[in-house]
Specification:
heterodimer; A: about 140 residues; mainly alpha; B: about 130 residues; 5 helices; about 80% helix; about 0% strand; elongated; disordered N terminus; transmembrane (chain A)
Chain lengths: ~140, ~130
């Protein structure tokens, strides 16, 4: 992507703040789920639980990126939303194709159906928001 | 076993029901405000405080039951949900204060839609019907 000198709109105001709120909620949900699973029954499904932990980390970093705004924050958020979108689609397909791979639920299993498919929609909203705020309208 | 457990659940009473109803009413109120381009109003902030009080009371009732020797079916998950639950209205309050626009109301709406789900999950982890 070419460097543009045009000022960017802050990602942490208005709808962005709602997006950050939802990212915080998912960060809490994924972190506590992963923490509990890894602490109590890691041996049952290590891949699924590590994946939950990775998802949790991505939600946290994405929230921080959006909240920090600025150029670095935007790039951080862009990376996180992209990885998140690829992750939720890949895990969604894999969890449907090969159930043995993810014997226990993760945030991203079946495209996040356990969480109302919000894990699938959230990175799209994040990318859309980053795209919408790429220039300052003022 | 199941009926006995549900009858004795400390998180399945009037407080839990009141929290769920209040949260949903608040979500609808906040949604209307967001649709009408209104910033979070007094009703939303007072509602969040009342909701927080109800959830803290629910947590206290649960802790008293645990102090009295009762045990949740899945203790780890139960305490995780309990801590999360008590933090939710506070999170909505702080973010709504930071965002005095329609999006502040949208944040209150979103958090108030999540809260009842967490209350129900809390009840399920007390009863623990399987894994």
């Amino acid at each position: 992507m070419a460097e543009t000198r045009a000022p960017e709109r802050a990602t942490n105001r208005g709808p962005g703040r709602l997006l950050i709120a939802i990212y915080i909620l998912f960060a809490i949900a994924a972190t506590s789920r992963a923490g509990l699973q890894i602490a109590t029954k890691f041996d049952e499904a290590p891949v699924a639980y590590l994946l939950s932990a990775v998802a949790a980390l991505i939600y946290i970093v994405a929230a921080v990126g959006l909240a920090r705004a600025g150029h670095a924050g935007r790039r951080l958020a862009l990376a996180c939303c992209s990885v998140e979108l690829v992750g939720v689609i890949a895990v969604g397909i894999l969890s449907l194709a090969d159930k043995a791979l993810f014997p226990d639920e993760t945030v991203w299993s079946q495209f996040g159906s356990g969480y109302g498919y919000i894990p699938l929609v959230l990175p799209m909203l994040g990318l859309f928001w980053l795209w919408r705020t790429r220039h300052d309208p003022a | 076993m199941t009926s006995a457990a549900s009858a004795g659940s400390p998180v399945d009473g009037i407080l839990a029901t009141a929290s769920i109803v209040l949260s949903l009413v608040l979500a609808v109120w906040a949604l209307v405000a967001a649709v009408r381009h209104r910033a979070p109003d007094r009703v939303q902030f007072v509602g969040l405080v009342v909701l927080e009080a109800a959830l803290v009371a629910l947590a206290v009732v649960a802790m008293i039951a645990i102090g009295g020797g009762e045990r949740p079916g899945e203790p780890g998950a139960f305490f995780g949900y309990l801590v999360t639950l008590v933090c939710l209205p506070a999170l909505a309050w702080v973010l709504a204060r930071m965002e005095p626009t329609r999006w502040g109301s949208a944040i209150v709406c979103a958090v108030c839609l999540v809260t009842p789900v967490v209350v129900v999950r809390l009840q399920q982890t007390w009863e623990a019907l399987g894994g």
